[in-house]
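Example A, followed by Example B.
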Amino acid sequence: MIARALRHLRAHPVSSSFAATLVLTSLVCGTLWRAHPRWLAASPAAIADGRWWTPFTALLVPDSLIELILTLLLILTVLAYSERLLGTVTSVLLIVGTGVLGTLAGIGTQALAASQGAVWARTAEPVLDPAIGVVGAIMAASAFAPALWRRRIRLLGFSLLLMFALYGGDVDSVYRLFSAVIGVFVGMVLARRVRHPLWHRSSYGEVRALVAAAVAVTGLGPLIVLITGVGVGPLSPVIAGFRGTGVDAILTRCAAQLSDRCVAGLGFGTWSLLSSLAPVLLSLIAAMGVRAGRRAGWILALFVNVGSAALIGVSLGMDDLRHPAEIVAIDRAFPGFAVVALLVPIAMAAVLLATRRRFAVRAEGSAVRRFAVTLSVSAASALVVGVVVVLLSGGDIGFALLDSLRRLLPAGFTHGHPHTHFGGAAPLVRHLIGVLFWIVTAFALVRLLRAPAIGASVDESDRHRALLHAHSGTLGFLGTWEGSRHWFTPDGGGAMAYRVISGIAIAVADPVGADAAATVRGFVDFCDRQGWMPVLYSVHDETLPVTRALGWTEIPVGEETVVPLEGFGLEGRSWAKVRQPYRRGERDGLRAEWTRWRDLPAALSAQLEALSEHWIAEKALPEMGFTLGGLDELKDPDVALMLAIGPDGGLQAVTSWLPVWEGGERVGWTLDFMRRADDAMPGVMEFLLASAALRMQGEGLAVMSLSGAPLAQTGEIGDGTMSELLSWLGRVLEPAYGFRSLLQFKAKFNPEYRPLYMAYPDPGRLPAIGLALARAYLPHVTASEYLALARTLRR
């Protein structure tokens, strides 16, 4: 471990040297034991006094032990990564340049704000903060990062910086924010030769992760004030008002000389803290649900943000709702904060509404009903107990109802009636009502977010997977993917995986089970009872006699390429296009690794995610699904991965493989996911597929399927109007998705070609079937994505 740490330090000389410098300056200047060398610190007063060097020296001395630890962690991780992107000299220049410019911009803004009476500007201490330059360099380096990390660094970085500036209000946060903005623009100038589109597409999983991070960060912002009691930022009065303690003292004791020390000295009670933590807790639970794509998590996040905006607005507009009206009083003392306070939750709500299509995973009806009952009983109990306590204390029924409702709101809304005396255990009970209600609600929400999703019954999925072990065919495993439902024959010996779109039940791949005819007929009867039209998609020749007996029509929709492994080898002229890149990869130190997602080291899984997201982000086209797997499908424990790892340990390409079972034994694998890095070795995919084939052959397996390419065949796609339409569609979509090029690539492996068909009962419903298939492949496509696709097709 020590040797590894030393290698890391040698590989990142700027980060290592800067970290050592900060430890040394902390010791020399005494900031570790709370000394504050003002002659090194930056501020408007320092510049006015002629200490011109302070914008530079402020970047070299941490203000405290906590700041030193946090800055060292940032330097040795994110800055070290940035150093690899920027190089040694550029890293040094950017740390100093963005730090000094950010400090000067912050000093100018602080002086201007102080002249206008801004509290944070008037009360700020002189700044010592090396993170100012570090943040600027990181943001500049993000311009050179892959699309995935560029997006994550900027979104998460600015979210955190803004929350600290808006809630904490310390001048260090403002300086860091300016440095980050300058760093982004400097990075864009330096990377001007690297053409990046302004907007990068994200996978559904990445959108969920980014929105979840934003929800969590905006929810954690108030925690800065609630936990520390410190905060003079534009939004800190909101938290002070919500917690309902010390606001009058803030206005009377601290208005003339408001500072973080004054506010921290006031403190607030335990019950106020617990009550005010409810919005924070709900935000974190919502972020958990949003990350999983849950519709309930999305609704909760929207509710929290809209509710926060509504509480602030109601507090400003209705003085008689609050006793005393803290937010109203604060707004009068510090005009204009309410506008900023309202913008944050409104902006977050707008983001949630814009991305709502990404959160479509719904819990089963029983879980929703259970949550509704729990919430109703909990709320009713809280209201009844609250009313009884107030009535027993001599209050009137009107106040009792209003007070009970306020118990469920943050502490600032829970002040008692001035003419009502609460004695005995009444104060404790009144405090507990809201706290217990939100604890019960939090547990109920977590249970709802963990409930099985509609159409994703664990029992059905396990039964279907067990049948696949008996006979899966080369494409049967597609039926295990998210979004698939499963129908079983009465005896449980056969199954169909399907999804219903606009009244059309699209079954994917051949029927599972020994009796295909009985399975298909049973599925057709089942669909008829449900009022759906059945369609069999991506089936082989073996299934067509069954559908023809039903009087159905079929058309080819693609072609599967299958490589027999018996006698497989790379010798001979026909294998030259595969043999040459395979031998080159061996010669150049390329390593093929067969593994599972669960066995990947953290570094490799991060590289794989980054590679996939970069591939998606660089395209102006929507990611397809249905019979084309994505990153989520890689995580199935039955799915294998073949990775191409360079001599430097970097991931150059990845393929995923779906199992093919027969009689309880694995007899082969089917190719699904394919991604390669931009700087990968030419021919890396040929190297990976050849390595996979040789491995499978060594295990005694019979078949390697390279899967099918939609709308692509070696010959013509049949006769008739619909066939001509599909042939035309395949040609038109080629610039966008390259299905025909993919089929040509697979031809290098001398495969056997197996046509794939779509069988359907009613030719008059073909337009509806086509629309349903489009929605299956592009379930969340938007109008802008259709326009992007159209622009691509015109080229």
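Example B, a separate protein, is given below in the same form.
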Amino acid sequence: MTPTATYRLQLQPDFTFRAAEKVVPYLAALGVSHLHLSPVLEAVPGSTHGYDVVDHSRVRDELGGEDGLRQLARRAREYGLGLVLDIVPNHMAAAPSHNKALWEVLREGADSPYAGWFDIDRSTGDGKMLLPVLPGPLGGELAAMRVEDGVLHHGEQRFPLAPGTEELALPELLNAQHYRLCWWRLARTELNYRRFFTISELIGLRVEDPEVFEATHAKILELVRDGVVEGLRIDHPDGLADPEQYLRRLGEATGGACWTVVEKILTGDEVLPATWPVAGTTGYDALRKIDGLFTDPVGAAALEHRYREVAAPAPDRGGHWEPTVRRAAYKVVVHELAAETEVLVRAAERICAADPALRDHAPWALRTAIRELLVRVPVYRPYVTATGPGGPLTEASAATIPAQAVREAKAAFVVEQEAAAVDVVRDLALGRLGTGPDHVTFCARFAQTASALRAKSVEDTAFYRFVPLISANEVGGDPGTPAVSPAEFHAYCGRLARDWPATGTVLTTHDTKRSADVRAGIAVLSQCPKWWDDLLEQVSGVPAPDPQVAWQAWQTAVGFTPAGDSVDVDASLAGAPDGSRMGPALLKSVRESGLRTSWTEGDPGYEQAVTDFVDAGPAGAARRTVAHFTRALSPYVRAGALGAALVQLTMPGVPDLYQGTEREYFALVDPDNRARFRPGPPDEKTVVTTAALKVRRERPDAFGESGTYTPLEASGPAAAHCLAFSRSGEVVTAVTRLPLRLAETGGWTGTELVLPAGRWVDLLSPEREFEGGPDHPVPLAELLAERPVALLAVAAS
């Protein structure tokens, strides 16, 4: 069945199935229809997230095992709730001592029955699988290695030995294995297995192979058939060789009885491929549209201008968002993804060597063409079928490598004939040139690499380099165009209601860099850029390592500091002082940006300066200053936070609530994205959330796949500050946009909203009723007198 609303729980050894059972009554009373569980299959011991699966045949023992999961499902059913599972088809943990399939591949090499599970390129060097797991160069680690009970040990790591090699001397023993142990730094250039993004500890799975699919999905499909699971969230489908083929196979295996959404990041006006047999996305596209509604385009432009004047790193001082993305993409493709690029180069070389018409394309030209095209793919990946017989080029796939990208890539060459390598690479990437194994491999790996490049260069680099308004720097977001007009939002919702009515929508997830309430506190700065300048002046006495860090830190402090005039402005999530949480978040920012330090080439002195600055300023002496500032902004932040929550809960799609976000929730990606769930006291946001979930549950037809979405336009001088819509003529949502600007221009005076005909009850204050119809326009000053949002339902006749 299609959920009416889901609630995400982050399972971990400290929050098990038994713990989840205890909150079932609370979640049922809240009004959701399904629990959305993080991955439940066996993972690396102690994992706090579960995306590092090691055994697909078992439900994780640390969470309570399969009996615990089935008991949770029974408990949920007692309260009318179902389960949605997050599954991870793209990768598993590259931890030999825990991953049986990988252990066997390392022990037996290409002859292992599990050899087809992983994308291992054995066409280079000695054909061995590289294992970049040693803390230093091999020569310096030999003394730490020993063989015991037929197993090679290095510290706590264990590795299998090829049969008959146990008694060899260590150097000879190492050379006799089907794998090559090496320094972790070699992964950047030498790695020969597909991984998740740039994380060598997560090895890619070949679920395009029917046998691998069956082996890795049998337990999940059993749980679906047994009615334990009613929905699936598919993690990172862009990493798969052929996402559509996978989704079709999954749909056939579940009998189409499972509500299924994909973690697909859409860029700009990109839409989900209509041929994918899913209900929609997990909702990052909705997040961007909702956040954009509460961002002022004029103020955002002013912030960007000021940022470039005083805080932007030198390369970005005169530039904008897209040049920042391009520079980041070059950095990632040349450095972090050098090994992935070389896999493509080798495949292209083999193809060209076998075809007389292509033989004269030199390796350097193919490498250059691959890099130049990869950095210009404007979305996460081209959608072409890597396993088909070349197939006709679809309009969608052509759009992902546009003609402009081809022309720009050719500009990197001096000789026109050498630039023809770009055409070859484009045609290989789009499946135009042949059907041989190398052609299929190139097509799939180009798309997979494009996805990794986009994620690393945009989400994990450019988002931390271009920071005029960091509330816009969210997965699926567009920091270059952060604002969304009501007309654009209405058009988007109209498309969802027509094409993807059961898609997912989100505001906060385990991956969002800042929770929705933190983003709401930052987004309000777009309505008052002059106030922001004044705040920076007030805190300028706190020396920062550089202006870029200061800009990010003070915006983080604004979003992360509850309003008040007390020095004690600790956030409530874990009872820890916010310095202990802001500090790691800022360190993550400077490492991800790679401008002054990084995860692999750290600058301890600079990082200590960042930590000292946070402790001395945003989390220290200046907290009172920031608290006074946020208190002045409080009513406007409240309007944005409540407005975003209500819009998400009532727009087309299935809303997903991240644990704890039914109330005010302040969180940053590190370290808060692994926090265990703790129900807290209700607040105003809880009232709005509960009312919206209740009306969704009571009127499923109004919000379901046959429901309609109708924009409602206010009239009067402040009409642009109201966003309103009707769901199937039965429920009306009205929220306040840009309330600070509204207050500066006189409020709601003279502005009205015509409700659909009928008598309407305010679900947030049931004693209030309104008459609808064109003869009874409702003054917005009256409709929104008690709250900056209104949720109305037509009264029963």
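On Example B: The first strand starts at residue 6 and ends at 9.
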